[in-house]
Amino acid sequence: MLSIERGLRAALTNPKESPRIIEALNWDGSQVSRFLSGQLGLTIDKVDAALGALGYVCVKPKYLDAMATLCQVGANCECARRGMGECGSGN
Length: 91
Known about the structure:
Layout: H1 4-12, H2 18-25, H3 29-36, H4 47-54, H5 61-73, H6 78-81
């Protein structure tokens, strides 16, 4: 399961990724160590920067449910658009 904690921990311990995260959060090396050890929290004003640096975006389950439905029936299904049922469903 993907989590923000695991994502931040992996990025901050990866020498190739950590500079991008550190810059986005405007941190130094001591803050990274303190954060990873649980001695420093992530303030509310840095949450968006952290997520953006990880390449994460927030979406609600309702959005993902809609996307799953569109993927199942075909977002560009010509059969459904012409009132002939869903492609491949036999309807």
